[in-house]
Amino acid sequence: MFLKKLHTLTLKSFLPPFTITLFVSVFLFFLVEIVITYLDEFIGKGLNTFDLLKLFGYAWIAIVPQCIPLAVLLGSIMSFGNLAENYELAAMKSSGLSLFKIIKPVFVFIIVLAGMTFMFNNFVLPVVHLKFQSLLYDIRQKKPTVNIKDGIFYNKIDNYTLRVGKKSNDKDTLKDIYIYDHSDRQGNNIQMYAKTGKLTTTADTSALVLILRDGNRYKEEMNASGVPSQKKPLSQLNFKQLQVNIELVDFKMKRTDENQFKGNEEMMNIWQIDSVADSTTRLLSKRINELKRQSEQFFYGRTSSYVFGTNKYKTVSIKKFYDTLNQVDHARCYENAMNITRSGASYIDAAEVNMKSEKQTVNQLNVEWHKKIVVSFACIILFFVGAPLGAIIKKGGLGLPVVVSVFFFLAYFILTEAYTSVAYDGTIPVWQAMWTPLVIFLPISVFLTYKAAKDSAIFDVTGYYIWISKLFKNKKSA
Hints:
alpha+beta, five-stranded antiparallel beta sheet, 10 helices
């Protein structure tokens, strides 16, 4: 019963700071990665509120996994720092409990959280990325909304050119309106002029509605060949009020088939990534073998005496052969040799570009494969950095724990980004690059856990001051 109460206490002290930190970090990442980055993509396009909410919802969900390690680190530092600051941790240890027994319930929660993070990354996140990327693509392709300025001809609407002399403060009432209608595909044969008008759109924004008042409509009659008719050269309509509907089909957002985006590595689980990476690797090996065969049978064989199957070349003297040729045959042989060389160089360059692209594709697939797993282990290792740190520094709240946790997380984040870029380049193996940051943090977590278990005051400035003073005294006495 006593242990259950202690376990409940430690969990209750960990969950609130973990939840708050997760929400705040997701919100900050959301502002930086989505709102600020894609703000220009949204402005002036008259997007539907529901579409924007869906996009932001997908983006918010996609950011959650990368913020979980930070939430674990800061939550563990704050919770165990609070326990140590209020001497609750010391009371638990004095009752005979070791540090490992104290942190056991939180550690079990972290293990479950790591497993759920992997399941989320593998099954939910690919679907979220697919929805987000397809919706973002459609938003980028959407044309901006109609923006008619005073005294300037506006020709962004297909088959129409509009000019408004002046707009009212509410932007709906127009004066001195000119409309040129090209919808008949026969040139500028329909023209409309009005003193005033009102601008609205239909409920589904599929058409622009112009209600014109006190104006004229002119139409130049054309024959079948598009030449002005001599019998009816011009028809004129004087109107008190005329409604003109202009279709805005191109200004509506069109949804693209999501299947077109499924080839991206972010939209696949680890088994799909394995399958695509394996097929791409086999294609790459096939290209390498094909290049080797082409080199042996065509390039080397036509430019030297190559012994097939032995990877050896015979030294051939062709000086005597060329001496027997006249000037025309000599030039012809030279041109033929140059053509063979150019053809071989072009083939090798094209093969190199293809192989480089396929290698990069394999690296991207492998990076995404490891990303889905590394985050889960990062939660565990960063917990064993944060919990001992909280027990050692003995400070809770939003002061020193936040500074320390941000420092460690920035170090982890910078290392991860640096090694990820190296993995994309193929400078070192992908698995090595993706796991190196955790390998660096592993001994740090072991060291801090050991020190916390031994109640070592490694952040106690007084202890270092005494040690330095003794060191200088020893030097003076020597």
